[in-house]
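Table S2 (text version). Query chain:
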Amino acid sequence: MRNFFYFRLALDNFKKNARMQIPFLLSSSLTVMIFYLVFSLSTNEGIGGLMGGNYVQQLLGFGIGVIIVFSIIFFFIPIRF
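Corresponding structure-token output:
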């Protein structure tokens, strides 16, 4: 009985704040997908074997840092509101 109460309370809260939470969830999942894509490309051994592949991996490594900084900004700004 008690678990159902908390589930219903959470569902009502999500319905009331869906206008704020749905864009946040979409942008969060998109940020995680982009991070995983860039990270997997930067650690791929096949790219390192190509001509100029080391430079590409290094550039993607810098891109990971940029994605992390923007992810932190995107994840913590909505908490303030």
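Notes on Table S2: Residues 71 and 77 are 10 Å apart (CA to CA). DSSP finds four helices and no strands in the chain.
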